[in-house]
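Quick question, first post here. What does this chain look like in 3D?
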Amino acid sequence: MSRTVQLRSLQTLVPDVPLEQGMVRDVFAAQPDIGRLGTRLVSASFNGSGVEMRHTVLDELDLSAEATSALFYDRESGRLLAPGTKARNEVYIREADRLFVEVARRALEADPDLTAADVTHVVTVSCTGFHAPGPDYEIVRGLGMSDAVERYHLGFMGCYAAMPALRAARQFCLADPEAVVLVVSVELCTLHLRSSDDPDTIIASSLFSDGAAAGLVTARTFDSAVPAFGLDRFHTAIAPKGEKDMAWTIGDSGFEMVLSTAVPQIIGESIHTALRPLWRDEPALVEAFDEGRIGDPVAHWAIHPGGRSILDRVQDRLALSDAQLAPAREVLRAYGNMSSATVLFVLRSILEDEGTRAGGRVAAMAFGPGLTAESALLTVLHGA
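> Answer (accepted):
Ran it through. Tokens below.
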């Protein structure tokens, strides 16, 4: 008899400093190293991004408060600065650890049946900084967990990394029915934003932001009916082309994102091949997918909002309704692209919607370097 592995107590968190998109656009457009064409690209990218608000750990970008430093932005000149990778990573260590521990604590506090003492595994996810001992260590120590908790960190995988983290958590729980896996993702993308005339860099600057998410994965059964998903299955696919169109490298002045304008087209061309194996064990879903009506049996769609054009292409190719893309578009609007944490924001939005009912199917999908597409099929166990 197969066991149901559930994802429960999903919690999300963003830093305190809000970034209104129009303000950020004007700062980038005013940089002295941006030419006339670059200024037009900044306006077009920021205005068409689908983003209205983002958040950052950088207090100096809070123009409503007194500046305490000028590491990333000089208010007097209005210039964006270019600190080295070491300086950026030092901010990451300080701020990311705080968010890792806090969002993990919130996930545990939200669960009526589980405490820190129940956690057997911690899986952390991040691609925007490095240090050791890392966030997995900080969570175990910060929340008073046993030293024997198994710790794993998925680093530098990009926007899709929360999906393999959930897949690994599911595998731990299938191997040990008593396992409780705490999955935590924190991304501080704004530490790596930079001024540039390069179109790919401008696109990245218009989208990326900071955020954190955490949830508990277990096959244990409880009397409490907390909002939760059943994790049914996962699939990984790599697009035939696109290796150079979405990439993430380390430079002397921070990490450098390549996000080309070809990405939405590549996703559109490859999404059917990437998704079809996800339905393989359910002939009714395979039939619906082949007939272009997968949106009927699979009511909810947690698509990673890598950008508005990506969501447009996915919606068109899969014939999904506006309502089915609404959770992803709302997360993009209110929070921007928080790399690996973003799809967990979308999943939480679906779970908390009053229209989400037990038994509803959910398809989740995230895209990242490679061009890699990670997908998952879930079932709503208990809605809000």
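The first strand starts at residue 6 and ends at 13.
The chain has a mean pLDDT of 94.
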